[in-house]
Design brief:
Elements: H1 3-16, H2 22-32, H3 35-38, H4 42-53, H5 70-81
Helix pairs in contact: 1-2, 1-4, 4-5
Length: 83
């Protein structure tokens, strides 16, 4: 499985489990479905996979030190989609 397939799988699984927000899923799947466009930024796609895997909607609210919050994911998405 390549990193784009892994991104799709992780995002869909997190969303199905009710953790990952629906409103952000379309952006992530858009990246997963366009490896030609984002192929030169696979290091950021790998970061995104890791962040979504570790996503916790309560990150930053207490003692969730290793959890990733939505703002970190959005920042990675912004870096990925810069021209």
């Amino acid at each position: 499985m390549d990193v784009f397939e892994e991104l799709r799988e992780v995002a869909l699984r997190q969303n199905a489990e009710g953790e990952f927000p629906e409103w952000l899923l379309a952006d992530v799947l858009g990246i997963a479905d366009d490896p030609e466009r984002y192929g030169d930024r696979t290091h950021l796609v790998e970061t995104l996979v890791s962040q979504i895997r570790e996503y916790d909607p309560f990150a930053g609210a207490g003692c969730f030190g290793t959890a990733v919050g939505i703002e970190e994911i959005r920042a990675t998405l912004r870096h990925l989609t810069l021209p």
